[in-house]
């Protein structure tokens, strides 16, 4: 996952990566508390919508003939809410959560080994 994210981030100027020739330790040019999950999502997924509407339905069917327009508005509302949430979560939050979860796993493992 780290390599995939690094690959995507390197392709986009928003996430300029600082590297030092001869060292395998690239660094983000922006602080992790300045990068939101929405930023990452937009870089990785570009303009791909969160939800896809199936347009291959039977227009003569009551559901198939009306489902696209019905879902379009609900999907739009859900996408706006999801993107707002992603924008409020910073990469530093994700890193901190990963570190806490790892410490918890290690503590649990030590307790079970005793």
Give helix % range: 55-70%
Question: Averaging pLDDT over every residue, what do you get?
Answer: 86
CATH topology, by name, is Arc Repressor Mutant, subunit A
Judged by helices, strands and strand pairing, the structural class is mainly alpha
- Count of all domains: 1
Q: Order of SSEs, N→C?
A: HEEHHH
**DSSP helix count?**
4
Protein name: Transcriptional regulator
Organism: Lactobacillus intestinalis DSM 6629
Pfam families: Rrf2
Detailed description of the structure:
InterPro entries: Tscrpt_reg_Rrf2 (IPR000944), WH-like_DNA-bd_sf (IPR036388), WH_DNA-bd_sf (IPR036390). It is a single chain. This protein has 114 residues and is mainly alpha-helical. The protein has one domain: Orthogonal Bundle (Arc Repressor Mutant, subunit A). The chain contains 4 helices and 2 strands, in the order αββααα. The longest helix is centred in the last third of the chain and has 23 residues. The two termini are 33 Å apart.
């Amino acid at each position: 996952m780290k390599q995939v994210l690094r690959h995507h981030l390197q392709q986009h100027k928003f996430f300029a990566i600082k590297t030092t020739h001869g060292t395998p330790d690239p660094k983000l040019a922006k602080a992790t508390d300045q990068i939101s999950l929405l930023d990452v999502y937009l870089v990785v997924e570009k303009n791909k919508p969160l939800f896809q509407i199936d347009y291959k339905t039977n227009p003569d069917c009551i559901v198939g003939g009306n489902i696209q327009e019905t879902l379009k508005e609900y999907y739009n509302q859900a996408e706006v809410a999801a993107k707002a949430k992603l924008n409020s979560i910073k990469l530093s939050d994700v890193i901190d959560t990963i570190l806490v979860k790892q410490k918890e796993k290690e503590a649990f493992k030590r307790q079970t080994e005793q």
